[in-house]
Structure formats: structure tokens, C-alpha cells
Design brief:
CATH superfamily of the largest domain: Type I PLP-dependent aspartate aminotransferase-like (Major domain)
CATH architecture of the largest domain: 3-Layer(aba) Sandwich
Strand order of the largest sheet: 2-8-7-6-5-3-4
CATH topology of the largest domain: Aspartate Aminotransferase, domain 2
Radius of gyration: 21 Å
Strand content: 15-25%
CATH class of the largest domain: Alpha Beta
Number of domains: 2
Distance between the termini: 29 Å
Structural class: alpha/beta
Length: 387
């Protein structure tokens, strides 16, 4: 079998940098003990890695002065649930967009169906971007918060967060951003963008393993506690602790995940986020221009590299997206994602919902030009069957 051509980095980055694998292995063999629970050397050293990772991420996102407000969870979905459930109150109105992943859509839907909140879903234009002024127009007296993605996982468009954040600040609204597809790919400046809560996952562009994510909550924002459990400190206190990071952390952390995330962020810092992104976008530009020249191929919201991430969705006339994915896998050993990609409202917006979605190719830090050439040739040959 030929070498796997992996073009599903929006799902999870693969492979990881060797430094991530090495540090996880070394760390867990030497420091696989609970941090902050005991005073012996290994526990103290483990806590130092956890604290260092909080600091690295707080600096990467420019969250604020208090790195303890960077809390860890299982993934972005877990953190988004904690934040949404901790902000929702009866009678509140929430503004979101048609670009969201189910990690935002489903928690909001659950509250909406229960009659707790009302939700407005903002559309995006033909290029794949929301208009910040639509946020302003949607604000009501009872609007509590705005929650939206940094970047679409289907069409790769990076949204105008700074403009939306400015509107939220002017109107006293809490601004929550799902950074699943942006953290580690696009520069983030929570303070400049007036972002109040930033949720992230570790296993995509941050180059960490699965099972680790988190959020940064800026000072002055109250997230109500919706869980309770062990923290390893102040055990005599009957309620869950109020202060960060314990307020949003429950039980033993995924230490192996934190270690991998630590190494992933350091690798990003060493190689330069902008350098990595620039190279990925050059490959994306080559891919999208080539596919747009193939008879029978339709791409979506892929007009320019500006405000875009290396994610390309397309369809081939005469084929189901799922069938194209199978052919790419079986005949060319190319891994892609097909279907609705957990973001059904995006597909409603681009007209592919009833077509059962798209074929999505997502480029990563280790994608090569030769692999893109092979992908272009594969799509060319598949399209020629019926076009």
C-alpha cells in the first residue's frame, strides 16, 4: 500500500510533530502522577508542566494577566457546553451564526427546545462571511451573549471577530468564540478583539493529542458552575470552589493531554504560526485553483486566500460526496472528510444539505506539494468518469 495522503486535518492534525510524541512519552513515564494533590517532588514537577501550559496558551491567545483563568477540559465541545450552560438564563436571547459546528448548535438547541432561551442564527454571504452589522441589528433588550466560530470547519472562512467584538463591547454583550479551527492556525488576540471567552481544542492546529481542550475566561465575566467534584485542594469546603482554575475544572486532569499540548504549542512557537499558515495556504491556493479548472467540479466559498484557512469543500457532478471519498481512499489512499461535517447549517447556506454535503480536503503542517499534486490528479480522474 502506498503512503497515506492525509487531507483531514480539520478533523485532527496528523501526524503530530515528533517533539510532541517524545515529550508525551517521557513526561508520562516520569511524571504520570496527580498534580497539586501531594507535596512530593514528582507531583510538584507535574504541576509545573500544567502551570507552564496555562501560561503558554494564555500568552498565545493574549487572554489576560491571570493564567489561572485558562482552564482545561476534554475538548472544545466540553468547554463550549460548560460556557453555554454557565451563561444561559431563563428568558435570555442568544445570537449565533449559520456557520457553527454542532458543538455550539446542539447545546443552544437543547436550551431552545426546553423553552429557556431564544436564538437568532445569522446568515453568511456568498463568500462565506457574516456581516458584523447583522449582529448589531439582531440585538434585543434581553440579548445575553453572542457566540460564533472563529473559522468554519466546512468552508474555511475566518470570520471578522474584531468587528463583532467591538459591537458586543459597545452593547454590553458577552462575546464567546469557538476557536476549534482557529487556535494555532490564526493569530489570536482576545484583548484586541474584545473576546470574553475563547474555547479551544488541543488536537487540531495546536498539535496536541485528542482528549484535551479548554477555555480562557477574561476577568469580569461570570460563568455559573454547572458541575461539581474533586479539585485536590480545600477538600473540607462543601461546595465546588469559586476560584479559577478550579471553577471550571473537575477531577483529575488529562495530564498526558496537557503534556502533549505543552509540546505542541512550543513547536508552533519555534516554527512560527504565520510561517506554517503561509505555507499551508500556498498549497491550498494551488489545490483550489486546479480543482476549479476541472470540468464538473464545484468548490464552495474559495475565491481568495485572504481571511481563509486551508480547508476546501467541493463536489463532483454526478457523484455523491460519500462515493468520492470512498474512491479517493480505496483507489488513491487519500483520506478526506465527506458529508455534513457536523455543521448542517453551513450546508443549508451553500446549498449542499440535500446533496448530503461535500468532500472536504484540509491541509496541515506536514502536507507536501507532491501530495497536493496527487490529490489534483485523483479528482481529475474521478471527474472524468462522468463529465
Amino acid at each position: 500500500m502506498s503512503k497515506l495522503i492525509y487531507l483531514d486535518n480539520s478533523a485532527t492534525s496528523f501526524p503530530k510533530p515528533e517533539s510532541v510524541y517524545d515529550f508525551m512519552n517521557t513526561f508520562y513515564r516520569k511524571h504520570g502522577v496527580n498534580p497539586g494533590r501531594s507535596g512530593f517532588d514528582a507531583a510538584i514537577e507535574t504541576e509545573e508542566v500544567v502551570t507552564n501550559t496555562r501560561k503558554l496558551l494564555t500568552k498565545l491567545f493574549n487572554g489576560g494577566e491571570d493564567y489561572n483563568r485558562l482552564t482545561f477540559s476534554y475538548n472544545a465541545t466540553d468547554s463550549l457546553n460548560l460556557i453555554i450552560n454557565g451563561l444561559v438564563e431563563p428568558g435570555a436571547h442568544v445570537i449565533t451564526t449559520m456557520l457553527e459546528h454542532n458543538s455550539v448548535l446542539r447545546p443552544l438547541y437543547q436550551h431552545k427546545e426546553a423553552g429557556t432561551i431564544d436564538v437568532t442564527y445569522l446568515p453568511f454571504d456568498k463568500h462565506g462571511y457574516i456581516d458584523p452589522e447583522d449582529v448589531r441589528k439582531a440585538i434585543r433588550p434581553n440579548t445575553k451573549f453572542v457566540i460564533m466560530t472563529q473559522c468554519s470547519n466546512v468552508i474555511g472562512t475566518v470570520q471578522p471577530l474584531a468587528a463583532v467584538g467591538k459591537i458586543c463591547k459597545e452593547n454590553g454583550l458577552i462575546f464567546v468564540v469557538d476557536g476549534s479551527q482557529g487556535a494555532g492556525c490564526n493569530p489570536m488576540d482576545m484583548q484586541a478583539y474584545n473576546i470574553d471567552v475563547y474555547c479551544f481544542t488541543g488536537h487540531k492546529c495546536l498539535m496536541g493529542p485528542t482528549g484535551i481542550g479548554g477555555s480562557y475566561v477574561r476577568e469580569g465575566i461570570t460563568i455559573n458552575k454547572t458541575r461539581a467534584g474533586g479539585t485536590g485542594v480545600r477538600s473540607a469546603y462543601p461546595g465546588h470552589l469559586e476560584e479559577y482554575p478550579y471553577r471550571l475544572e473537575y477531577g483529575t486532569l488529562n495530564l498526558l493531554g496537557v503534556a502533549g499540548l505543552n509540546a505542541g504549542v512550543k513547536w508552533l512557537n519555534e516554527n512560527g504560526l504565520e510561517n506554517i499558515h503561509s505555507r499551508e495556504m500556498a498549497l491550498w491556493d494551488k489545490l483550489r485553483k486546479a480543482l476549479q479548472q476541472i470540468k464538473g467540479v464545484t468548490t464552495y466559498c474559495a475565491e481568495s486566500t485572504e481571511n481563509h484557512n486551508p480547508v476546501l469543500s467541493f463536489n463532483i457532478n454526478g457523484f455523491e460526496a460519500g462515493d468520492v471519498g470512498i474512491m479517493l481512499d480505496v483507489d488513491y489512499n487519500i483520506a478526506v472528510r465527506t458529508g455534513l461535517q457536523c455543521a448542517p447549517k453551513v450546508h443549508e447556506g451553500i446549498g449542499t444539505f440535500d446533496m448530503h454535503g461535500t468532500v472536504r480536503m484540509s491541509i496541515g503542517a506536514f502536507t507536501t506539494e507532491e501530495e497536493i499534486d496527487t490529490a489534483i490528479q485523483a479528482v481529475t480522474e474521478i471527474a472524468a468518469i462522468k463529465n
